[in-house]
Specification:
The protein is α/β, with parallel strands linked by helices. It folds into two domains: 124 residues, 3-Layer(aba) Sandwich (Rossmann fold); 96 residues, Arc Repressor Mutant, subunit A (Orthogonal Bundle), CATH 1.10.10. It contains eight helices and twelve strands. The strands form three sheets. A five-stranded parallel sheet has the order 2-1-3-4-5, sandwiched between helices. Strands 6-7-8-9 form a four-stranded antiparallel sheet, with no helix packed on it. Helix 6 crosses helix 7. The chain is globular. Bound molecules: calcium ion. The site of calcium ion has 6 residues, from loops.
């Protein structure tokens, strides 16, 4: 997290394949980012402890010491919610789901097009700026619905009085719902406003995240009362 908003945004690339890491570093630097490379999870952990922090992390799943899923869980557990884009080795559904479950914000299957990675990094960083500018919801940053209390400023979430950790993207999605109660929101709108992506092919990502919100907040995730599906149209939040 850069202290100075005018400073170049700082990225951490965690990738052990030297050629790929060097290529990513060069191309991200050409985009104007400041880039550090870690070639294993231990090194990544050390860099993440430094006070200057990062604005985003590009994390490869296949690392020589600890795999990217485990590292991502550790990062989140330590209370670090820096956006993570995960590079999965195969385009398998299990890897994508595991990546998102481990707290990643986005994923990209290898081999990927450089342009697509750059676009996704840009979209993650735009989302952060939007989040910083986002108006507090009515009555301040705190909101209450059903059994849940959410403080969007401190990121403190409680369900039935028990503290809950949400990933940055889960919070962003929840914030958008809370700001638009009772309105049907299409997957495309959610992708555009929350993910800052207009790539309709990732609409299933939205479904995945809705399931996560339901698991967090619904008494019976199979029979939701707050995060409703609207057939053929999208989703609707009912406080
Ligand atoms: Ca690797």
């Amino acid at each position: 997290m850069s202290l100075n908003d005018d400073a170049a945004e700082r990225l951490l690339v965690v990738e052990d394949e030297e050629h790929l890491a060097a290529g990513l570093k060069l191309n991200l630097e050409l985009e104007g980012y400041e880039v550090e490379v870690a070639s294993n999870a231990r090194e990544a952990g050390e860099r993440l402890l430094r006070p200057e922090g990062f604005d985003a992390i590009v994390l490869d799943v296949q690392l020589p010491d600890v795999d990217g899923f485990t590292l991502c869980r550790k990062i989140r557990k330590s209370g670090n919610y820096t956006p993570v884009i995960m590079l999965t080795a195969r385009n398998s559904a299990e890897d994508r789901v595991e990546g998102l479950e481990s707290g990643a914000d986005d994923y990209l299957a290898k081999p990927f097009e450089l342009d697509e990675l750059l676009a996704r990094v840009r979209s993650m960083l735009r989302r952060r700026q939007w989040e910083r500018r986002a108006e507090p919801t009515s009555g301040g940053a705190r909101t209450q619905f059903g059994r849940a209390t959410v403080d969007f400023e401190s990121h403190e979430v409680e369900v039935d009085g028990a503290a809950l950790k949400l990933t940055r993207l889960e919070l962003d999605l929840l914030r958008y719902f809370v700001q638009n109660p009772g309105r049907v929101l299409s997957r495309e709108e959610l992708l555009e406003h929350v993910w800052k992506l207009r790539n309709y092919s990732t609409a299933r990502t939205v479904d995945n995240f809705i399931s996560r919100l339901r698991r967090h907040f619904e008494e019976d995730p199979q029979a939701p009362v707050h995060f409703l599906s609207v057939r053929g149209a999208g989703y609707k939040f009912v406080p």
